[in-house]
Design goal:
116 residues, mainly alpha, globular
Amino acid sequence: MNDTMKIEMNQMLDYIMKNCLWQFHSRTWDREKQNTNIIMKTTQILCDEPVEKDLPADRCYWVDAMCLADAYRSRFLWINTKSKEEIKQLMQMLKDRLDVLTITGSLNAELTDPHY
């Protein structure tokens, strides 16, 4: 990862951490599904690829992804100049870091409490 991509990824991550309530689900599996599906669908939208919306859950993730993609396109104009491969690489880096912050590195004991 070069320095520019790291800076860009951190800008995108900062937006999620400050503006997206979906990152705060109370179970590990909820957070894993949210991170995977919203980041995947956001990537597809940013790359002008088809997005699956058949199931109610898909539509829910799609709405969050649309909001995120719109925010990224309007706040981070540099994303509009990236190739599809660059976007995919950047979004994978973002998802990996988001997983660490919201799941594997989280100190929230509720995430793994079987009685909660």
